[in-house]
Design brief:
This protein is an alpha+beta fold. About 25% of the residues lie in helices and about 35% in strands. The strands form 3 sheets. Strands 14-2-3-5-4-1-15 form a 7-stranded mixed beta sheet. The protein has a 5-stranded mixed barrel with strand order 6-7-8-10-9. The protein has a 3-stranded antiparallel beta sheet with strand order 11-12-13. β4 and β5 form a beta hairpin. It is elongated, with a radius of gyration of 21 Å. It starts with a helix and ends in a 5-residue tail after the last helix.
Length: about 260
Amino acid sequence: MVSIHQLLNHLIETEQTVSQSDFLAPCVRQGYLRTRVNGLVYTFTLKGWPFEGWGLFRPTTYETVTLVKEAGVPEIAQYLRRLQPFRFYLVHRLYHRSWLAYPINEADVHRQLGEVRPVVVHLVTDAFAFDQVIARWDGNAFWFEQGERSAEHAISPYLCQSLAEGTAPDELHMAGLTPEALTAYSLAIKTGDGNLQHCQEQGDFWSAHWTTADGESHTSTLAKDDLAVISAGICLRDCDRDYDLQSLVGISAQT
């Protein structure tokens, strides 16, 4: 049986290691980063200038990290290979590099996640509305990996042109259009060109103030838990390299 003194010594050694342990993780603005050192989980916020992307981070305290450098393509690929892939239509850019998206195959998503709904895909690069992409699920968030190489590329420009012309979903007539593509198109119509003006914190909720393309103002109340983006980091030095990223991020639902 482990004694209390052994546990305390383990905790002290781990906290000394934290400041020397760089880790790889995706980061969105105002998001959180999480990694594990010697079996203990730490959650951090980024200190300093705003950063959004893949990076190598170093803890400065038990609550904050700084960016050491941006991660390279091989490091990002190594991270993403650990996660479950899904295919989506990009629907509408919400903010920065985060897009509203809809599954290309509803049955596949329902089988693996138990539900089908629009999702947010983070850190999207070089993409347009209705592009078909692959994103990886870490148990809390979807992270963009690449465009879908096997996609029917004629669908995206057709849907973009139809949206610009104001074509109704029931007026779309193109071979190869699936029910999922029509759902994504309908979502794009509903989303429109709304712009977020500002958010105000109110206890456990945010009040989001936004305007539509024609200037009409709206206010929506959003639960903080629905907006939180918590990414899991792969520790790079003297800590747990081979843990399940999905399990690590899932801890957020229990803390």
